[in-house]
Structures are given as structure tokens and as C-alpha cells.
Specification:
The protein is of the alpha/beta class. Helix content is 41%, strand content 22%. The longest helix has 19 residues. The two termini are 40 Å apart.
Length: 404
């Protein structure tokens, strides 16, 4: 659903409920919106969000907005929404994110801000948030950003803990004592790859290949050769270049999106690389992509913090409601954003006179919040951690692994 469609849907709901929605254009671009029910009321709390709402990453921003609006109750006819939501467009640019944080904090005096998305944006906004004493709930996979200061949170579960879980299963249940890592050369990719290597070493395993690639790369021939070795002239002369090749590792870990992984696996097939366990992280939770490339993902295992078809009723209910409203399947990022917004709203609604400092303290002390992904606890480093799920792929479908 596009940003415009989200707003139109909000307008339909609010006018049907006798409410009011205001939309304010800024500089000719849909950069800022205020959503609330009823007449302007100074008692309403205000939150802000910094998202890419225009430019190359507009569709990504639209997807995040879906979860924020759903969690805020903006799609629920008859529900009194206790918060105003101000939106600022960052276009995924650090300086725009920095200015957006200042605008939200100083002009609109919001209690907290959700976003931004990228690592670079998050660091820029975090510096401003820390100066102003306002909680910033980042959506980046680079969780080191919380180290900027005590006002900086991260809505995603601990990457290190997820990978620890994955490695434990790979070693204990799949006998994957030797592994290779192929990772995108960005902060989140480097972190995940490093965590995997450390966990393998700490548990008696070994990473024998550790290969990086540019994040925007589409042809992985060079990287695959570094993993599997080149096809030699002797192999071609002997006619063995078409036979399956002996691969010097038991598992291959790729912490990237399912879209990129499908491209990489197609190159592995071309090089006749087979006979190892494919492992991944939450970036693989893209049901439509995996279903469209089912042969490439068959038998693969990934770890994530949200599983719609598992044993948690709230997860299934969220997935159904999300599909009903947004006309697409919810992924793990949708669930993380929803929980971050819903948790923040719960704290605000429970307080008589919420302040920025009170909200920060309550967020930092949150323990056992029951969200759509399960029980969420804010860890000491202000990471919103939760249960981890191991998922395998069978015939293009995600199946939860029930561990012993």
C-alpha cells in the first residue's frame, strides 16, 4: 500500500468516525502529516517518525508507515486515538534525518521519535536526539547505534542472540562444524558475519571462508569463486566441469535479504556447488520472494524474531489483520515496528502527564511486554529483544523448526 493510499484509508476511517485528519504539505513534497481524532486537543501526546517518504526508498517508507498507522489505531473505526503522529521525510539521507529530528523535537515537541531506517541516518538522528533528551527508537539493523547514548533505542531483537541460537542449532543438530560466510559489506552485514564467526569459534566450530561483497552487487561470480574455487581448464578438458563439486564447508551463512540470496544461490548452482546447509537471518523472511524461488531455498534454515504461523496467537492475529488492512503479508520488520509503536503508546496512555524523561525511563525498564511477536523485553543496551524462531523452507513454505 502506498503512502497516499495509507492516508486515503485514514481519511475514510476518520471521517466515518466523525474525526479529523490534517495533512500539511511541505516544500511541495508530502513530508509531514499529523493524524489525530477529534478537535485539536493540547492533552494529546505527540510522536514523530522519520521515514523515507519520497525518492528511491519511498516504497520502503510506505511499508513502515503501514505498521505505524495500524499500531496507532488509525485504521480502527470507533477507536479513540490518544496520540498525534508527525511524519518527516528523510529520503534515507543522514543530514535530512538530522534536521527531521530537530524539527520534530523543537517545533512539534514530540515525546519520542521512531526511525530512521539506515545506519547512517540513525547515527545522525541519534546525535541530535541525545542532545535534546528525546527517545529515538531506531529501525536499523546496526544495533551499535544505541551506544550513542541513553536516549537511543532499537526496535529490532538482538542480532547477536539470534545468531547464537542459529549457530547452536547448526552445530548441534546439523553437524555443521565448518562453515563459510558470505556477507554484504555494510555495518549490519559485518556485524552479523562477525557474530557468526565468533559464535562458531566459541563453540568449537570453524569458519574457513569469510567473503564480503558490495551491498548493491548483482553479479556474484567472483565471490562464489572465492568460496568454491575456480573451474580449471583441466576440469573442462576432463569433462568434469559439469559434475557436482566438492565444497570445503558444511554450511554457508548469508546475512542478507532473500532477494540477494536468491541471486547468490543461482550463481552457486551455476558453479555446481551443492551438499551444504544454507543458513540465514531475518532478512530471509520474505514469503513472496522465497515462494517465487522455492527451488533455491529448499531446505534452507534462517532465524527470526517473528513467525506468523507459530504457537503465539497474537502473531497469527496480527498477520491476519495486517493482510486485511495492508493487502500484503506481514514480515518480521512489520512486527517489530508495530510492537515498538504499540509499546510506546501503552506507556503514554498509562501515564497521566507523560514527559520525555518519564517515557525514556519506562521504555528502558520495559520487561515482558506482550507484543505480536511474543514477549518483548528491553535489554540493558536498549534493544527490544524477544524470542527467536528457527524456520526452514519446504516447497516454498515457511515451517517452524520445533527444537528438542
Amino acid at each position: 500500500m502506498s503512502y497516499l493510499e495509507s492516508l486515503i484509508r485514514c481519511i475514510t476511517v476518520f471521517f466515518a468516525a466523525g474525526g479529523l485528519l490534517l495533512f500539511m504539505p511541505y516544500g511541495g513534497v508530502a513530508m509531514e502529516a499529523v493524524l489525530h481524532q477529534g478537535e485539536k486537543n493540547e492533552a494529546h501526546a505527540a510522536l514523530g517518525a522519520i521515514l523515507p517518504l519520497s525518492g528511491s526508498y519511498e516504497k520502503f517508507g510506505d511499508r513502515i508507515l503501514d505498521s505505524l498507522l495500524l499500531a496507532g489505531g488509525f485504521f480502527d473505526e470507533g477507536r479513540e486515538t490518544s496520540v498525534e503522529l508527525y511524519l518527516e521525510d528523510s529520503q534515507m539521507k543522514p543530514e535530512k534525518a538530522r534536521r527531521a529530528l530537530s524539527e520534530l523535537a523543537d517545533r512539534h515537541r514530540v515525546l519520542a521519535v521512531l526511525g530512521p531506517v539506515s545506519s547512517e541516518e540513525s547515527y545522525a538522528a541519534a546525535e541530535e536526539a541525545e542532545k535534546r533528551g528525546i527517545s529515538l527508537i531506531t529501525l536499523t539493523r546496526n544495533q551499535d547505534v544505541t551506544g550513542v547514548g541513553r536516549y537511543i533505542f532499537n526496535a529490532l531483537p538482538s542480532t547477536r542472540n539470534q545468531i547464537r541460537h542459529l549457530v547452536g542449532y547448526a552445530l548441534g543438530q546439523r553437524a555443521a562444524g565448518e562453515a563459510a560466510v558470505l556477507y554484504p559489506d555494510v555495518p549490519a552485514g559485518r556485524d552479523a558475519a562477525g557474530f557468526f564467526r565468533d559464535e562458531m569459534a566459541g563453540r568449537g566450530g570453524r569458519v574457513s571462508r569469510f567473503v564480503a561483497y558490495p551491498a548493491d552487487k548483482a553479479d556474484f561470480a567472483v565471490e562464489v569463486e572465492r568460496l568454491t574455487g575456480r573451474i580449471t581448464d583441466a576440469e573442462r578438458s576432463a569433462g568434469t566441469d559439469k559434475a557436482p563439486r566438492k565444497i570445503p564447508f558444511d554450511a554457508l551463512f548469508i546475512p542478507d535479504s532473500a532477494v540477494q540470496v536468491s541471486r547468490i544461490v543461482s550463481q552457486l548452482v551455476f558453479y555446481r556447488a551443492d551438499g551444504f546447509q544454507l543458513l540465514g537471518d531475518s532478512g530471509w523472511n520474505m514469503p513472496e520472494t522465497v515462494a517465487a524461488n522455492r527451488e533455491r531455498f529448499e531446505g534452507a534454515i534462517f532465524v527470526d524474531g517473528f513467525f506468523a504461523n507459530g504457537a503465539i496467537p497474537e502473531s497469527a492475529e496480527f498477520a491476519d489483520r495486517f493482510y486485511e488492512v495492508c493487502d500484503r503479508e506481514a514480515d518480521s520488520l512489520d512486527a517489530y515496528i508495530y510492537d515498538a509503536m504499540a509499546m510506546t503508546l501503552q506507556i503514554i496512555e498509562a501515564g497521566k502527564n507523560p514527559t520525555r524523561e518519564r517515557l525514556r525511563l519506562d521504555l528502558a525498564g520495559m520487561n515482558a511486554y506482550h507484543g505480536v511477536r511474543g514477549v518483548v523485553t528491553v535489554a540493558p543496551l536498549r534493544i527490544m529483544d524477544s524470542q527467536h524462531f528457527l524456520v526452514t523452507v519446504r516447497d516454498g513454505e515457511f515451517i517452524q523448526i520445533i527444537e528438542p
